[in-house]
């Protein structure tokens, strides 16, 4: 049963082959048995899950239907869940029970999804390895000595290990697509403003976007359908109608223009990954796509710009965690300054502290123009590059990451080495564009992802291309040994 995709679960529930309650019990038992190896969950919500599963079964018995009605999922632990710990992977929020549900959580619950738990993540979503969590590192089910990617590494590891069919994630600079690539999943970062950020604990507000992680594009379509839509509570949410994503899957790729940026195949890319990406290009060509080399000339400036903008926004967003308004409070403060200093010093881990310091520095008087303003200008140039490219092509294709997963701890002493892993993903966040990563093969037994980018609000096009690719390849069906 644990091998079923969301689409298969929906059919099984509709055909009364099993109930949501039965399925939920099977998956909860599987999590209890296997998750100790992975550490992919921070909290399990067994009681809530069983209540929601029974309610979904009752709704089906009453004639209701829907692809998510009774479907088991989990939420990255930065989506607020009412009455349930929402830790953001941090000691700072270790005992924070959110007083309300995030819009994404509420929408999925209303659609009948069953929440099995809250998944592990890099602290405050900062990282590419899921090693900065207060709750310990997450292991990659493809090799337990390797990282699963981050920051949505718990969601990715859990779905890849077939502990559940799909989960939510968030992507500020690649945190859905990069762990999807490293664990052989399909992950989609929607257009900025497509999915509500209300109740999603902020890292860098102008870049953060929630989205689905699943095994197939078909399942990403189902989960995205439940997440997307205008939300008056989020001032950056965009009031655009949500198309039927599942209906977009079957379009023909005949004549689809795919742009392959030459800058994506520069020195930093593992040549074995380059080969796999070229194979996926050939596969899409067989399906009728037309390939064109394009250029994104400002790509080289993306990482420096991102690592100014994201920490700057983080330093502002995280100022509310001061032991007074929100978060951990130190023992026996001698005065207010001591309370602030020790609460933040003890509550935040080293990576978060590093980002706050970088961000506060970039925003400080005298440096703002030199760093933050400059980075915003680069951001515009990157967006312009994409706009020019999308005049010529329908989709941009390249690797998701320059390397496959690395050994736990291997990049710990060199934060910049980890930052460089985001080189292909962060441009989409800087420009606000939708992006998808899907399985494209293996290097030394570790999964590799191919990334697709599309113009604003063309999530359906990404899912269409990915689905057609998955009908003709079987990388996404491979299961890690032992799971
Ligand atoms: N790895 C990037 C960072 O650490 C992206 C993280 C994310 O997308 N949340 O900032």
UniProtKB/TrEMBL annotation:
The keyword Protein biosynthesis applies. It is an enzyme of class 6 (ligase). The active site is at residues 76, 151, 175. It catalyses: L-glutamyl-tRNA(Gln) + L-glutamine + ATP + H2O = L-glutaminyl-tRNA(Gln) + L-glutamate + ADP + phosphate + H(+). Its EC number is 6.3.5.7. It holds the Pfam family Amidase. InterPro entries: Amidase (IPR000120), Amidase_CS (IPR020556), Amidase_dom (IPR023631), AS_sf (IPR036928), GatA (IPR004412). Residues 22-463 form the Amidase domain. Keywords: ATP-binding, Ligase, Nucleotide-binding, Protein biosynthesis. Gene3D superfamilies: Amidase signature (AS) domain (3.90.1300.10). The keyword Nucleotide-binding applies. Heterotrimer of A, B and C subunits. Allows the formation of correctly charged Gln-tRNA(Gln) through the transamidation of misacylated Glu-tRNA(Gln) in organisms which lack glutaminyl-tRNA synthetase. The reaction takes place in the presence of glutamine and ATP through an activated gamma-phospho-Glu-tRNA(Gln). PANTHER family: GLUTAMYL-TRNA(GLN) AMIDOTRANSFERASE SUBUNIT A (PTHR11895:SF151), TRANSAMIDASE (PTHR11895). This is Glutamyl-tRNA(Gln) amidotransferase subunit A. It comes from Pseudomonas mohnii.
């Amino acid at each position: 049963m644990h091998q079923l995709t969301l689409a298969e679960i929906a059919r099984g529930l509709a055909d009364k082959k099993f109930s949501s309650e039965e399925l939920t019990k099977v998956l909860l038992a599987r999590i209890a048995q296997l998750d100790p190896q992975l550490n992919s969950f921070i909290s399990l919500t067994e009681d809530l899950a069983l209540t929601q599963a029974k309610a979904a079964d009752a709704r089906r018995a009453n004639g209701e239907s829907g692809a998510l009605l009774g479907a088991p999922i989990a939420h990255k632990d930065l989506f607020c869940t009412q009455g349930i710990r929402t830790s953001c992977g941090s000691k700072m929020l270790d005992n924070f029970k959110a007083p309300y549900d995030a819009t994404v959580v509420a929408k999925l619950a209303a659609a009948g999804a069953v929440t099995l738990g809250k998944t592990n993540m890099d602290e405050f979503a900062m990282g590419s390895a899921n090693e900065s969590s207060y709750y310990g590192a997450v292991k990659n089910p493809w090799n337990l000595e390797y990282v699963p990617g981050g920051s949505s590494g718990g969601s990715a590891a859990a779905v890849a290990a077939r502990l559940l069919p799909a989960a939510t994630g968030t992507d500020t600079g690649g945190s859905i697509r990069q762990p999807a690539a490293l664990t052989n999943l399909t992950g989609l970062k929607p257009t900025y403003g497509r999915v509500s950020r209300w109740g999603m604990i902020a890292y860098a507000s102008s870049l953060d976007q929630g989205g689905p992680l699943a095994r197939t594009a078909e399942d990403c379509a189902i989960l995205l359908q439940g997440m997307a839509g205008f939300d008056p509570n989020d001032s950056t949410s965009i009031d655009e109608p949500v198309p039927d994503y599942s209906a977009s899957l079957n379009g023909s790729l005949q004549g689809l223009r795919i742009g392959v940026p030459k800058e994506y195949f520069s020195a930093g890319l593992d040549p074995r990954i380059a080969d796999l990406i070229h194979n996926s290009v050939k596969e899409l060509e067989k399906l009728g796509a037309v390939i064109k080399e394009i250029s994104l000339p400002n790509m080289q400036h993306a990482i420096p710009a991102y690592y100014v903008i994201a920490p700057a926004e983080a330093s502002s967003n995280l100022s509310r965690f001061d032991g007074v308004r929100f978060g951990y409070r130190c023992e026996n403060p001698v005065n207010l300054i001591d309370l602030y200093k020790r609460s933040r010093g003890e509550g935040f881990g080293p990576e978060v502290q590093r980002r706050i310091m970088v961000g506060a520095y970039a925003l400080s008087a005298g440096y703002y123009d030199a760093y933050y303003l400059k980075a915003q200008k680069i951001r515009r140039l990157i967006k312009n590059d994409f706009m020019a490219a999308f005049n010529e092509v329908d989709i941009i294709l390249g690797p998701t990451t320059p390397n496959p997963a690395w050994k736990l701890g291997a990049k710990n002493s060199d934060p910049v080495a980890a930052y460089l892993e985001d080189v292909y993903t962060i441009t989409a966040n800087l420009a606000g564009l939708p992006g998808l990563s899907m399985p494209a093969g293996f290097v030394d037994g570790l999964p590799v992802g191919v990334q697709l980018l599309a113009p604003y609000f063309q999530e359906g096009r990404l899912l269409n291309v990915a689905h057609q690719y998955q009908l003709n390849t079987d990388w996404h069906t491979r299961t890690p040994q032992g799971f």
